[in-house]
Specification:
By secondary structure, the chain is of the alpha+beta class. The chain has a single domain, classed as Gcn5-related N-acetyltransferase (GNAT) (Aminopeptidase, 3-Layer(aba) Sandwich), CATH 3.40.630.30. The chain is 23% helix and 35% strand. The structure holds coenzyme A.
C-alpha cells in the first residue's frame, strides 16, 4: 500500500461537529495546507516542498478534512526501516479536538504498514503542546540538536518511537 492511501472516508471522529476524515493529500489541498503552515511556524515550508511530496510512494502526506475543509496535516517519510515525522500542524481554530492525535496515529499506522520499526522527529524544546502529544503516543527523547531551529533560534529535541512489528496474518 502506498502510505496515506486506503484511509478515505473510513476513519471518522465524532468529536468535531462535522466528521473528520483522514485522507491522502491532493494537489488541491496545498493552498489550505500552506495557510495553516504559515500561521503555525516562523520558518514555514515552501509550496514546492509540499507539492513535491504528493504521490511520492515513500511519503505519508495525510490531511484532516472536515466538511471539505483541510484543518490539519501530517507528513511522514521512510527509508528502509526508519521513518521520520517531518511536519504536523492543525489550524489554530481546530486545536484541542483530537485532530493532531488522529493525524499522528494515521502516520504511525502508515509507516508501520511499510515495515518501519523506528520513527523519529524533531520538536522545539519549548513546544509543550507537541511534546505532550508525542509523549502520549510513546515517543521518547533520544537526543538534542543545539540551535537547530531559526526564527526563533532554539534547540530541537530528537524523539523516537519504537514500533512493534505487525504480527503475520
Ligand atoms: C501540536 C498540535 C499539532 C496539536 O494538535 P491538536 O489537534 O491541538 O492536538 P490534540 O487535540 O489531538 O491533542 C492531543 C494531546 O496533545 C496534548 N496537547 C495538545 N495541545 C496541547 C496544549 N496546548 N497544551 C498541552 N498539551 C496539549 C494533550 O496531551 C492532548 O490530549 P488531551 O486533549 O486529551 O489533553 C497543534 O498544537 C499545532 O498545530 N501546533 C502548531 C504546530 C506545531 O507545533 N506542530 C508540531 C511541530 S513538531
Amino acid at each position: 500500500m502506498r502510505m496515506g492511501e486506503g484511509m478515505d472516508a473510513s476513519i471518522t471522529s465524532e468529536r468535531p461537529s462535522a466528521p473528520c476524515v483522514l485522507r491522502a493529500a491532493r494537489a488541491e489541498d496545498v493552498d489550505a495546507v500552506l495557510e495553516i503552515e504559515r500561521a503555525a511556524f516562523g520558518d514555514p515550508w515552501s509550496r514546492s516542498a509540499f507539492v513535491d511530496l504528493i504521490g511520492d510512494p515513500r511519503v505519508a502526506f495525510i490531511v484532516a478534512d472536515i466538511a471539505g475543509d483541510v484543518r490539519g496535516y501530517i507528513v511522514a517519510w521512510y527509508v528502509l526501516d526508519e521513518g521520520e515525522i517531518g511536519n504536523l500542524a492543525v489550524h489554530d481554530s481546530a486545536r484541542r479536538q483530537g485532530i493532531g492525535a488522529r493525524l499522528l496515529d494515521g502516520a504511525i499506522a502508515a509507516v508501520r504498514a511499510s515495515d518501519v520499526d523506528s520513527l523519529y522527529l524533531e520538536v522545539r524544546d519549548s513546544n509543550a503542546a507537541a511534546r505532550a502529544l508525542y509523549a502520549s503516543r510513546g515517543f521518547a527523547e533520544v537526543g538534542r540538536r543545539r540551535e537547530y531551529y531559526r526564527r526563533p533560534k532554539e534547540d530541537a529535541l530528537v524523539l523516537r518511537l519504537d514500533l512493534e512489528p505487525i504480527p503475520p496474518g
